[in-house]
UniProtKB/TrEMBL annotation:
Quaternary assembly: Homodimer.
Protein name (database record): 3-isopropylmalate dehydrogenase
Organism in which the protein naturally occurs: Aureliella helgolandensis
EC id: 1.1.1.85
Gene3D superfamilies in UniProt: Isopropylmalate Dehydrogenase
Ranges where the Isopropylmalate dehydrogenase-like domain occurs: 5-358
Length: 379
């Protein structure tokens, strides 16, 4: 029996609805994989918490995140809840969690599932790449710092370190080893996305990338400038496997990535460190959809699948692997049948309706498997 302590943070806006749908699915998965046990705790944190209590994430909740096996967060932040300096609560809480948990690698899959419409007419060979965003350094290293001089000049410093770059690039190659390669021809390839033609910091990022690439002779490596990559992702999306990049570039290109595979409602993410990991959809709190049961919960549900897959790797646990695959394969099958078309996908399936469809499909597979094993035993 494998038991994991999972902290769930529903957050703000559509976050609680997306998390509830995900917990419904997890419950069905646990019934199918009885040797897996999740101790789930649930805590308030985010903009509403800040509005009521003056703090976005209480220290005991942060401590519990650090003690947990993994954290599953839905979405946080509300545009009308701001700190006295005018900024939102969300970046401070996310950067605080990332820094405290050492989450240096943000893994953002850009995968076009059969049955989902891409706005591109260049997607016929498929889209299945990972945007790997360095998550602690780059332009975000100066978060909470920066400088405003006499109301005339403002600056933020972009920071690239050897240690930070080596670990995320190494992670990129290890990820490529586990994947099936790019959709166009199955070649495993890691691409460094930078601006090395202009900035010393990015030339250094690329230099370290090329050094690390030497350790992985079986995986192709190349580099592209970020402006060109934003074009290539649209004109030849099947050519890419793993793209590794600086923090701010990853922040931007991962939203572009979501747009070409059906939108933010289908975009999960994992944030990984050496000792901790946090999983959350790539989207925000979509305040205009809150409480209407119309948000797409699939990004959160697939983030939970990524969590189980990470637990499986970390603990060599085939039960967690089975649970992860059960979620992803069921979601993929239902998407291909057009059964999960929420409003953002041009349909009218509700948030809770998505969860119910997945739960029903998981239960039906379980019933079919038991009937098969009974028939086999009888024959
Ligand atoms: N990590 C996070 O929790 C996170 C990330 C981004 C933004 N935010 C916060 O979310 C709030 C709103 O920000 P925003 O509007 O820029 O981004 P957003 O991701 O909430 O919304 C962008 C667009 O995508 C749509 N969308 C997002 N998620 C969806 C879903 N699950 N189903 C259907 N449609 C969905 C929204 O309706 C909107 O049109 C802000 O307070 C922001 O700070 C939080």
């Amino acid at each position: 029996m494998s038991t994991y302590n999972i902290v769930t943070l529903p957050g703000d806006g559509i976050g609680p609805e997306c998390l509830d749908a995900t917990l419904h699915v997890l419950q069905a998965v646990l019934e199918r994989v009885p040797k897996l046990k999740l101790n789930l705790s649930r805590h308030e944190a985010g903009a509403e918490h800040y509005r009521k209590h003056g703090v976005a994430i209480p220290q005991p909740v942060l401590d519990e995140c650090l003690a947990a096996d993994a954290v599953l967060l839905a979405a946080i932040g509300l545009p009308d809840v701001r700190k006295p300096d005018g900024t939102e609560v969300q970046p401070e809480m996310m950067m605080g969690l990332r820094r405290a948990m050492g989450l240096y690698a943000a893994v953002r899959p850009v995968k076009l599932y059969p049955g989902v419409a891409s706005p591109l007419n260049t997607a016929s060979q498929g889209i299945d790449m990972i945007i790997l965003r360095e998550n602690l350094e780059g332009l975000f290293a100066s978060f909470g710092g920066g400088c405003l001089l006499n109301d005339t000049v403002a600056s933020d410093t972009l920071m690239i370190t050897r240690e930070g770059t080596e670990r995320v690039v190494d992670y990129a190659f290890r990820l490529a080893e586990k994947r099936k390669g790019r959709p166009s021809d199955g070649k495993r390839r890691v691409t460094c996305v930078d601006k090395a033609n202009v900035f010393r910091s990015f030339a250094f990022f690329r230099k370290i990338f090329l050094e690390v690439a030497q350790r992985y002779p079986n995986i192709e490596s190349d580099a592209a400038y970020v402006d060109a990559m934003s074009l290539y992702m649209v004109t030849e999306p099947s050519q890419w496997d793993v793209l590794v990049m600086e923090n701010q570039f990853g922040d931007i290109l991962s939203d572009l990535g979501a747009a070409i595979v059906g939108g933010l409602g289908l975009a999960p993410s994992a944030e990984i460190g050496n000792a901790h990991a946090l999983f959350q959809p790539s989207h925000g709190t979509a305040p205009q959809l809150t409480g209407k049961n119309v948000a797409n919960p699939i990004a959160t549900i697939l983030s939970a699948a990524m969590m189980l897959d990470w637990l499986a790797d970390r603990h060599a646990d085939e039960h967690a692997r089975e649970a992860s695959q059960l979620i992803e394969s069921t979601v993929a099958a239902l998407l291909s049948q057009g059964m999960l078309k929420t409003a953002d996908q041009g349909g009218n399936v509700t948030t809770s309706g998505v969860a119910e469809a997945i739960v029903d499909a998981i239960a039906a597979q379980g019933a079919a498997e038991s009937a098969n094993s009974t028939n086999c035993a009888a024959s």
